[in-house]
Amino acid sequence: MKDGVLRTTCGICQIGCGALVHFTNGRPIKIEGDPLHPLNKGKLCQKGYASLEYLYHPKRITKPLKRVGARGQGKWMPVGWDEALNIIADKFIEHKKTFGPESVAFIRGAAKGLQDSYLTRFANAFGSPNITSMAYVCFIPRYAASMITYGFYAIPDLDYPPKTIIVWGANISDTLFHVYERLCNAVRRGAVLIVVDPGSNRVTREASMVLKPKPTTDLHLILAMLHVIIKEGLYDKNFVEQYTTGFRELANHVSAYTPEQVSEVTWIPADTIVHLARVYALNKPSAIQWGNGIDHTPDNFQTARAICILRAITGNIGIPGGDVQWTNPALIERGSVAFSLHDHIPPEVRAKRITKGNALLPNQFYALPQALIEAMITGVPYPIKSCYIQGCNPLLTYPNPRKVCKALEAVDFLTVSDMFMTPTASLADIVLPVATYLEFDSIVNAPYSLAVTSIQQKATRVGECRSDYEILKGLADRLGLANIFWPTEEECLDFILSPSNITFAQFRDIAVLEGRKLYRDDVHNTFPTPSGKVELYSTRLESWGFAPLPKPTTEIEVNNINET
Ligand code: SF4
After folding, report:
1. Substitution candidate for ligand 1 out of 8, 9, 12 with most atoms within 8 A of CB
2. Tag placement on the chain: N or C end, fewer CB within 10 Å?
3. Which of 202, 150, 521 is nearest to 307 (CA)?
């Protein structure tokens, strides 16, 4: 585009705010929020407004680099794309042949939407079960708990609005600004705001009640709320009877978690716990806006399960002003077999996935990062010879950087695709210059609030940077996997849009597809679980060797209190 405005979606984080890129003489010169976008309605956060600084940052890597000095010494030689991709492909072939496909590991970050999923597709087609990400501490524990309990990811119906809102472990004033605005509107319209968070932020300052539990004890607190709600008969009896399984087992289970006992563990006074439970259960409709704070607790999955159960037994799931389901626009889902090619890995190879014990649900296809780091250092249970890192800086983001450094130095061959020479990239054998969101077309499906799918359009291209799609296709072509990617990225996007019967070219004009809220009556009062009900007691979890009811790993503390 020479002069004018291009409609796109910010890709710096996964919120998916609509943005307008202004051009002068063919160069993007300004970015602002898209006033027509249903999520952000014309605003961007500071990161979004800084997009062009990020795009044109003088420290961006703009050519493929090959290490020429000792690892980490910082000596590089620019090479062409063919040479860089040939070197990587040769190493992958050598290691696969000698040590098996599992010896090639993949580490990915987040915030790149479909580009993240292309790496999953590539790893599965290549045959390695060892792909890892931050999923285990970011969103997936809450998502998995929701799917297990009632079969969908529920979102607070803030616009109705609720009468009570609990913000639990979520600093939305800094991380989800459009949700924060909707929350403030709900409070202006009379909603009681309660915050559970050991820290302080703008949301805690606006709340009428703030609870600061001892970190890691959130699950105890929720179990005590369930105890009060069941003991005092504050639950929704009709809902429980008609739409749940395992209520009796739940009641027995939470009977041990009295407010007095849990108060000792959580540092929250017993009468405050009772008050919280009563307000949430009685001042309906109530909604819970949760966040990554839940995912960062040791009992993240079971804590999320307990919140799902709390929503359900109080009848707040699927009602106006409660926590509701949204239909997504029709797309090929990123996690589906059709897209991720999980079925390309035979069960015997899948069984080799590196995890510590049985710490992940069987339907999660990721290896645990810590276990992978351990295997890279020790060679146990088998050697990890190559590692491909996309959009991730484990030296900064993983725990124990010394250990991570040792692991990255231990692999025979390390590739990093990134925009900048991060500490992790500085240890690589090959560094690939990757495109920012302003340099390739894509489809953004925001997962965290309102079901909105929007257009991402290429505005420009810096240096020799390529999108991850283009990089992975180049590698796939060299590995005999040419058929797993489409000839062009746009044809892949056509495939993803195919359930909506539109092409990406047509989507450029439409720009936004919206889902819609599904209240309980809309789905004929059944839930997409094996039993068709909300599964308070999960026989699936039990059959996989996990606790069927949410149980803290710090259970011993409650038992000890019982004894004294
Ligand atoms: S919240 Fe995320 S998507 Fe929205 S402007 Fe900020 S970085 Fe971009």
Report:
1. 12
2. C
3. 150
